[in-house]
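Lecture notes, continued. The same structure-token format from the folding unit now serves as the input rather than the output. Read the line below as a description of shape only.
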């Protein structure tokens, strides 16, 4: 009877391990899910802040002050064969976290990567749907 119990526990451990492995191998995609811009009151030289709401939080190890890498994922088109070739992903900006909750955070733009070192993107800004990765 003891061997049956050991087999059941081993089977459960293997099943749980494969679930965790498959989730890690897929890699969770965290992204910008909303952008909020403050109201422009027309004060000369003052730019309203932009807050970026992201789907990564303290449950994923993110803390206030953490830097997030923003990655743009774009499809590439094979002109010679007239079909989509593959998605390309490249970093475009860095955000700094100002508020964190369990599975979400709010961040502000720290810097855009220089235009001469990133592919052409339009618009040249962080937008909803961009991926984020904790640094």
């Amino acid at each position: 009877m003891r061997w049956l119990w050991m087999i059941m526990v081993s089977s459960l451990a293997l099943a749980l391990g494969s679930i965790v492995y498959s989730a890690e191998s897929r890699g969770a995609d965290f992204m910008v899910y909303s952008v909020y811009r403050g109201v422009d009151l027309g004060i000369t030289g003052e730019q309203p802040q932009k807050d970026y709401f992201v789907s990564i939080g303290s449950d994923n190890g993110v803390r206030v002050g953490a830097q997030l890498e923003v990655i743009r994922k774009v499809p590439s088109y094979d002109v010679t064969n007239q079909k989509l070739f593959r998605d390309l992903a490249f970093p475009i900006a860095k955000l700094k976290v100002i508020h964190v909750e369990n599975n979400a955070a709010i961040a502000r733009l720290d810097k855009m990567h220089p235009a001469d070192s990133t592919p052409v993107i339009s618009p040249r800004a962080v937008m909803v749907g961009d991926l984020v990765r904790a640094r």
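Point for the exam: Confidence is low (pLDDT under 50) at residues 1-26.
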